[in-house]
Design goal:
single chain, mainly beta
Length: 160
């Protein structure tokens, strides 16, 4: 256990459907380590978190958390990495914090989506609008504009 003394400490609890609950705690509180560093809701209903990476991460890739509490690329062909939490907003090296959009819109000029169609997790964090034939189908959101996804991560569906 770690004692935290600060003006405001937040208890961050993961709840159903990859959404998060934040509750204010007393100024001094004993807490168990949590890999979540920051949870912030920005304008427009977007929710971002920051987590420590277990491997180098590129921006705009599907991200999961493994048993060690670190984040890695999600992969539709690997059960261990099929639990997507969001999409990385920037690159980060191993052991660094990476910003991850978990809910809301994310724009990237390098995307060219078919508007109104779902966006899926592919291999090694890649995003695609084609079901790849991998072991899992994982919808991370819907393309709202050619370069924008509205992120609403769904539970993986095993198709074997």
């Amino acid at each position: 256990m770690t004692t935290i003394q600060t003006q405001t400490v937040y208890d961050i609890e993961r709840i159903a459907e990859n959404r998060y609950s934040v509750q204010q705690m007393p100024q001094t509180y004993n807490v168990a380590y949590t890999p979540f560093a920051v949870v912030a809701t920005s304008g427009g209903g977007n929710t971002d978190i920051e987590k420590i990476t277990g491997e180098p991460i590129s921006g705009h890739k599907a991200i999961c958390v493994k048993a060690d509490g670190l984040v890695y690329y999600a992969d539709a062909d690997d059960e261990e990495t099929s639990g997507v939490i969001g999409i990385s907003r920037a690159a980060a090296g191993t052991g660094e914090y990476v910003p991850i959009r978990t809910i809301g819109e994310l724009q990237h000029s390098g995307w060219s989506w078919i508007v109104g169609e779902p966006v899926y997790v592919g291999l090694t964090g890649g995003l695609t609008q084609s079901v790849t034939g991998a072991e899992y189908v994982i919808i991370v959101g819907i393309a709202t504009v050619e370069d924008t996804i509205n992120i609403e991560v769904q539970q993986p569906i095993f198709i074997g």
